[in-house]
Structure formats: C-alpha cells, structure tokens
Specification:
The protein has nine helices and three strands, in the order H-H-H-H-H-E-E-E-H-H-H-H. By secondary structure, it is mainly alpha-helical. It has a three-stranded antiparallel β-sheet, with helices on one face. It is rod-shaped, with a radius of gyration of 37 Å. The protein starts with a helix and ends in an 18-residue tail after the last helix. The relative contact order is 0.08. The structure holds a DNA duplex.
Length: 232
DNA sequence: ATGGCCAACCCTTTTACATCA
DNA sequence: GTTGATGTAAAAGGGTTGGCC
C-alpha cells in the first residue's frame, strides 16, 4: 500500500525494530538548506516524478520517503493556506454586497416615501373639489435621495418631477393600472397615467408592496403624512 | 468483465521537538 | 534552571483511486 516500506527501513532502522512508542526517536527537522531547496522545487512543481524524487533525495541527503512526505505535508499546508485566502476573498465580497444591499434598501425606502407624498398630493385636490389655477406646489426633500415636485398649471394639468431615483428604478408600470386605481383613487386618467414612465415592475408588484410593509419601511412618516392614511 | 496487487495520493492523527511564559 | 502549555513539522496509519496483469 505505502510506497516507502523499503525506503524507510534504513534511516530509522534502529527505530523500526523497536516498540512503536520509541520510533523516530531521531526525528529531526530538516536543515534550512534542505528546506530552501525543497521549497524552491515545490514552487515549480507540487508533485515530484519518482525519478526526480530519487534525485532530490540523493542531493539533499534524505530518504526518498522523506522527500515524498515533505511534499505531501507541503501540499496539505499549501491547501490550508489557500482555503484561508479563498475565505478572506469571499468574506470581502460578502461585505461589499451587504453594503450595497444596505444602500439600495435605503434608496428603496426613500422612493416609497416619495410615492406616499405624491399620493397625498394627488388625493387632496380630489377631496377639495376642482383645483383652480397655478396654486399647488409641494417640494419634499429627502436628503440627497432626490426630490419630488408636483405642480399644476393654469390648465389644471398636473406635472411631476421625482429626481433620478424614479427613472432609475421605475416606480410604476403600465401593468399596474389596478394599483394606480386602488392607491391613487383614480380611474384611468389619461393625464395622470401618461406622466408615469413604463418601466420594470420588479418593485411594483403587489408582493413587493407587501414586502415593503413587512420590512417595516413604513414605520416612519414624512411631511406629516402617515403611510397608513394612504390606504384609507 | 472481474478481481487482486501495487503504487501513489489524501486526510487525520501521532510524535518529536522548539519556544515561551 | 525547570516545567507545562502550545505550535509546528515530520512521520505514521488508514482509506481511496487508477493502472496493470
């Protein structure tokens, strides 16, 4: 099974014939010179050809078995260090992703709050009857997350400006007519609906809305409009 | 095709030695 | 100086695999 039965007999011959506990009494660490030579060989090839092994053993005054075992142990040590390196790389990648996730989550929260404000602004004129003239202009800043501006001109037409986030993520899609109707209290108003760019609905499905809530994103209110008022 | 043998490897554990408090 | 704890490297032991007959 093992490849050194004969090879080992000589160096520790006085040992192998004695009790197990006394074997290798002469075990010594290899000299710096031997280690240096072995290390440099390991750098070029992590496994030795049998012939090369014999040659190296002869050159270093070691038994071929000792050389084989040194390479074996060296491979194990190298593998262990490699695992450690890989782990560190994975850890760094994970930290990086976690940081990105955190910032995206914050941005998502800001967008939801902006939506809330918009809804309130849209709802108010409806409740108060017809809006007249160039009156309403609300601007709620949320740090550097962009701003929301709603204006109505003299014709009574609403116009929106939400900053970069809306366009980057796509707040509502055309497929969300039900949501628009439910949440905004509007039928298909061509003026209003045309203001919203078609976009990826990945953040606008009903499931997403639920997850917003369950995430506790609506615990805060902004501009004095609690989120739950939005649903009533 | 199958099984035995052998060599080489890997993984785990043991052993001997060095270092340090 | 010695002693025990700890770390490290050399080596042993056992299992697995692949080539050969």
């Amino acid at each position: 099974m093992l490849d050194y039965t004969e090879e080992m007999a000589e160096p520790f011959s006085s040992v192998t014939t004695t009790k197990k506990k006394n074997r290798n009494r002469n075990k010594r660490r290899f000299s710096d010179e031997q280690i240096k030579s072995l290390e440099s060989m390991f750098e070029s090839e992590t496994r030795l050809e049998p012939r090369k092994k014999l040659q190296v053993a002869k050159e270093l005054g070691l038994q071929p078995r000792q050389v084989a075992i040194w390479f074996q142990n060296k491979r194990a040590r190298w593998k262990s260090k490699q695992l450690e390196r890989d782990y560190n790389i994975l850890q760094a990648n994970y930290d990086n992703l976690a940081a990105k996730y955190g910032s995206l989550k914050k941005e998502k929260q800001a967008l939801v709050i902006q939506l809330q404000k918009l809804n309130d602004l849209i709802k108010k004129p409806k409740e108060e009857g017809q809006c007249c003239g160039q009156v309403t202009e609300t601007n709620c800043n949320d740090g550097d997350k962009g701003e929301t501006t709603v204006k109505s001109d003299s014709e009574g037409q609403l116009s929106f400006s939400m900053g970069r986030s809306e366009h980057a993520l796509g707040v509502l899609s055309d497929d969300d007519s039900a949501i628009k109707t439910d949440y905004f209290g509007l039928e298909e108003d061509p003026n209003l609906m045309s203001m919203v760019d078609p976009a990826d609905d990945s953040l606008t499905s009903r499931e997403e809305w639920r997850s917003f809530d369950s995430d506790g994103l609506f615990d805060q209110s902004n501009c004095g409009y609690p989120w739950w008022d939005f649903w009533s």
